[in-house]
Design a protein that fits this description.
Layout lengths: L16 H7 L1 E2 L11 E8 L11 H7 L8 E8 L4 E8 L5 E5 L19 E10 L7 E13 L2 E12 L13 E4 L17 H8 L7 E6 L6 E6 L1 E3 L3 E9 L12 H8 L2 E11 L2 E17 L6 E3 L1 H8 L6 E3 L2 E6 L9 E6 L2 E6 H4 L1 E2 L7 E3 L1 E3 L7 E2 L1 H4 L2 E6 L4 E7 L6 E3 L11 E2 L7
Parallel strand pairs: 4-9, 5-8, 15-24, 16-23
Antiparallel strand pairs: 1-8, 2-3, 2-11, 3-4, 3-7, 5-9, 6-7, 7-8, 10-11, 10-25, 12-27, 13-26, 13-28, 14-15, 14-19, 17-18, 18-22, 19-20, 21-22, 25-26
GO molecular function: aspartic-type endopeptidase activity
Protein name: Peptidase A1 domain-containing protein
InterPro entries: Aspartic_peptidase_A1, PEPTIDASE_A1, Peptidase_aspartic_dom_sf
Length: about 450
């Protein structure tokens, strides 16, 4: 079964305002976005359960490699008539918006009840994928169309997928209601194109809610519990300097389970990192990795930690005196003092240098006062190198899905100025209005 046509990739800039206004339905209960953009608040949720530090290595590698301690950025979306509101984790490594089907036999459970929506339309398309949790379990999906509310926009007949848990082999969703996938549409990994692949951005473009398939990501520091994803544009008061363009590249995958995350290692938002450097007030900058052509790293908003090679991990550990492994967990504990002092881990990507302050890179887990951890693991656990939330919390990222480009800048905050991006706009000429930070 073939995917529906995505429609034109370009919206003519000379559309009359009246035509534009009549093409978009707006949810009166939500904050309106700048025309040509859809603004979605991110809610930060975490469960720093101290019991999670007693699990064995295999449980970490299989079950928690992308949601260790369950720190996630979630978006709210409503589907169906009447509306059913769902809280879904934002996932840049998945290209599908899917929701867990609510089991009618289990009252009090969460998910989407397909029997309660009067506007739900089945597509008679069924497919499956492997899931990185539960020893590579298989999740089976059904495809549907229904009305959905995304930010302030009501999307007519959005294509999405549902996952009936009782038909998924060995899967346990663990309280997750689904995934808000904003990954690149995969080209060639699947035998048959999936209708729900990248369906949200296509629908917003076809409905003229956005001018091009682009979005920007602003993850706040983990202690602030929020952030923003802006579909169709960027906010020039959330970063400093210029945004540096970087083409996505073909990545590497060493995971034996060919799940969607592993496939994203090859075909997702993979960028080449040329250099990783640590800065500190007690010594000169130290280069811990230097690859002139760049080593592939996947950008993944749903990964709570970074995944590096053992060589990079060891060299980073050497820059934190007293760093020691945590028994039963492939993480590293350090003294909490560096969290409060100057210093950063700097990533050179093309011509961009993204500085991740030590205060953001180092974890402080509330149930374990006085203990701090370095949020990094061996890339073998994920199948590839990954830059997750610790990196993305310091970067302002703009994704151009039409051209498969990533734009990076150092995050700042000096107000708000949301800008809708049109096909003719040069993203690398959208200069940040904030003064440059020292990165301390």
């Amino acid at each position: 079964m073939k995917s529906p046509s995505p429609g034109s990739l370009f919206i003519h800039g000379m559309l009359l305002l009246a035509t534009y206004a009549s093409a978009i339905r707006v949810d009166d209960d939500a904050l309106e976005s700048v025309p040509g953009t859809v603004s979605m608040s991110l809610g930060f949720s975490h469960n720093d359960n101290a019991g999670g530090l007693t699990i064995n290595k295999r449980q970490v590698g299989v079950s928690l490699h992308r949601d260790l301690l369950k720190r996630q950025y979630n978006v709210e979306i409503s589907i169906g008539s009447p509306r059913q509101t769902l809280l879904l984790p934002l996932d840049m490594a998945s290209d599908v918006l899917w929701v867990k089907e609510k089991p009618t036999s289990q009252p009090g459970t969460t998910g989407f009840d397909i029997k309660k929506s009067a506007t739900l339309k089945p597509l008679n398309y069924h497919w499956q994928m492997k899931y990185p949790q539960n020893d590579c379990a298989i999740i089976r999906f059904d495809s549907y169309r229904d009305n959905a509310t995304v930010g302030s926009i009501i999307v007519k007949d959005l294509i999405f997928a549902t996952a009936p848990e009782q038909r998924s082999v060995g899967a346990n969703f663990g309280g997750v209601d689904g995934v808000f996938g904003l990954g690149l549409q995969w080209e060639g990994n699947r035998e048959t194109p999936i209708p729900s692949s990248n369906s949200l951005m296509k629908a917003l473009l076809d409905q003229q809610a956005i001018y091009r398939r682009v979005f920007s990501l602003n993850l706040q520091e983990s202690d602030s519990h929020d952030g923003l994803v802006l579909l169709g544009g960027l906010d020039s008061k959330k970063y400093s300097g210029n945004l540096v363009k970087q083409r996505t590249i073909k990545g590497k995958n060493s995971d034996s389970c060919q799940h969607e995350g592993a496939s994203a290692c090859e075909n997702g938002y993979v960028i080449p990192v040329k250099r990783i450097t640590t800065t500190s007030p007690w010594h000169q900058p130290v280069t811990v990795a230097d690859t002139p052509r760049g080593e592939p790293y996947l950008l993944d908003s749903s990964s709570t930690i970074n995944f590096f090679s053992q060589t990079v991990i060891q060299r980073i550990l050497e820059q934190f005196p007293g760093a020691r492994p945590v028994e039963g967990l492939p993480l590293f504990e350090i003294d909490c003092q560096p969290r409060m002092i100057k210093g950063s881990i700097d990533f050179t990507i093309g011509d961009a240098v993204i500085k991740v302050p030590n205060r953001d890179f180092i974890w402080h887990i509330k149930p374990l006062p006085g203990r701090c951890f370095l949020p990094m693991m061996d890339s073998k656990e994920a199948g590839c190198n990954v830059l997750g939330q610790p990196f993305l919390s310091a970067a302002y990222v703009v994704i151009d899905q039409d051209n498969r480009d990533v734009y990076l800048g150092n995050k700042a905050d000096c107000g708000s100025n949301e800008v809708a991006l049109r096909p003719s706009d040069r993203i690398d000429r959208q200069f940040g209005e904030c003064p440059e930070s020292s990165g301390d």
